[in-house]
Amino acid sequence: MRMRQDHITSAKALSRGDIEAVLDRAAEFAGDPTAHADRRPGALLGLAFFEPSTRTRMSFAAAIKRLGGDIVDMGPVEASSVSKGESLADTVRVIEGYADAVVLRHPSEGAATMASEFVDVPLINAGDGAGQHPTQTLLDLYTIRAAAGLDGLTLGIVGDLKYGRTVHSLAHALTNFEVEQHFISPETLALPESVRYDLDAAGAAVEEHTSLEPVLGELDALYVTRIQQERFPDESEYRAVAGEYRIDAETLAGIDELPVLHPLPRIDEIQYFKQAHNGVPVRMALLDLLLEGDR
Amino acid sequence: MTADDPELRVSKIESGTVIDHIPGGLALTVLGVLGIDGEGDATVSVGMNVPSDRLGRKDILKVEGHELSQSELDVLSLIAPEATVNIIRGYEVAEKFRVERPTEVVGVLACPNPNCITNAGEPAEARFTVLDAGVRCTYCETILREDITDHVQV
Questions:
Q1: Nearest to A94 by CA among A48, A42, A41, A40
Q2: Mean pLDDT, chain A, whole residue set
């Protein structure tokens, strides 16, 4: 099937069909990711990362190479024409001339939506400030589906819900499934009004808490996010909440087999975690679907 | 007409716009939003805190020689949703209508989120979806409910 969306800027635009198409194809690729180099031979993926990244950048590069394609990389901002004052709009228009799809990470919210208006090739949002990170969500959904299933799930999401873009995307995407979402955070880091508005509009089952303990026993899985120092306008606000939701063996004592997910990087909120290496097959699946057919 | 009727307090205009049923106290804000600052030669009459059956207190504006554009009407609808607009030509009311809330406003409000891409010097006009209560940035999705007038950039 073709993706309903040409650009992947927000998880909000992903339908259940879109999500399941990616997850199902990712499951096919995950068996042997090295066996699909005939899928997109010669395809070029433009990487435009205006913020640091390890996993997202490398897994996109690995994914397109596993499909038989390659990357063209803008490289560090300071070595690009951005340092000469080139706008984001002009930058993505230039990269569009070199690549069949563009992956963009940028520190401003809404950057991917704006950039997508200037290009015809698929533009994939790899994180826009505290906004959205839809491809992380696809691999989170893949991991959650494998660990605990999606329909009928009761999921706890704990940590920085205000600035955590992976949380915003995940919350939106989960409204496509029968999932009860429990959000646990200090009041200062609760979900932004805009996300809460969308969850309410979608009729999602949502509860908000300031403490993890009372709901821990009800959860089928727990999603932990990093308290992101770089998103806080004020360091004292960061210090007041950093480390507040540490998950360790003691927290989980008496809880049977609770899958704990973490988008990483971690600082000190989690002691035990199962690293998911699902980024490559999931991004392979997404790129394969986006590049399907003639464009 | 009664002695209290505000229509008697200011003279009729030959052509232009009369904006009635502005919430009491917001007339000067509306003028500011419309960019009418007295610098031009247009005659402007302002009635403030006039008793009103519908609003309790209302403001009225008469602007000589200026008919509101669609973007001006869009902004007006956000800050004075009850307003009625009378277009005057040849001393007669040529058109009379209530403002309508648009589904979207473009280029009339600045996004309150300093980290929004529309505040980063890019060639993107701030664009807002109009909600039942408030407006929402199309790019960063920030919802603006109060103090909309503080963010007008017409």
A1: A48
A2: 88
**Alpha helices per DSSP H over chain A:** 16-31, 55-66, 88-96, 111-116, 134-148, 165-174, 193-201, 213-216, 235-241, 279-290
Determine, for residues B141 and A109 on separate chains, whether the beta-carbon distance falls below 8 Å: yes
Query: What is residue A264's predicted lDDT score, i.e. its pLDDT?
Result: 60
Residue A226 lies in a domain: yes
Beta-carbon separation of B123 and A87 below 8 A: yes
DSSP A187: G
SS3 A274: coil
* Banded model confidence at residue A266, pLDDT cuts 50, 70, 90: low
User: Could you tell me if A265 and A286 lie in one domain?
Assistant: no
Same domain for A247 and A126:
no
Residue of chain A nearest B114, judged by CA positions: A108
Nearest residue on chain B to A9, alpha-carbon basis: B139
Tell me the chain A residues in contact with residue B117 when contact means C-beta distances shorter than 8 Å.
Answer: 88, 106, 108-111, 113-114, 128
Q: A197 to chain B nearest CA, in Å? A: 9
Q: How many Å lie between the alpha carbon of A201 and the closest alpha carbon of chain B?
A: 12
Helices A16-31, A134-148: crossing angle, 10 deg rounding? 70
pLDDT tens-place string over residues A122-133: 999 999 999 999
Is the pLDDT at A248 greater than 70? The verdict is: no
Q: Tell me whether the omega of the peptide bond preceding residue A259 falls within 30 degrees of 0, making it cis.
A: no
For this complex, say whether ipTM is above 0.90: no
Domain that holds residue A286: 11-131+278-290
What letter does residue A203 receive in the DSSP assignment? T
What is the spatial distance between Cα A115 and Cα A93, in angstroms, rounded to a whole number? 9
Ordered structural domains, chain B, with CATH: 15-98 (3.30.70.140), 104-151 (2.30.30.20)
What CA–CA distance (Å, rounded) separates A136 from A141?
9
Indicate the number of domains in chain A. 2
How much is the pTM?
0.85
Distance from CA of A292 to the nearest CA of B (A): 27
Identify whether the C-beta of residue B62 lies closer than 8 Å to the C-beta of residue B75.
no
Residue A3 lies in a domain: no
User: Is B117 within 8 Å of chain A by CB?
Assistant: yes
Per-residue pLDDT of B51-103, as tens digits, reads: 988 888 999 999 998 888 887 888 888 888 889 999 999 999 999 999 988 89
Greatest CA separation found in chain B? 55
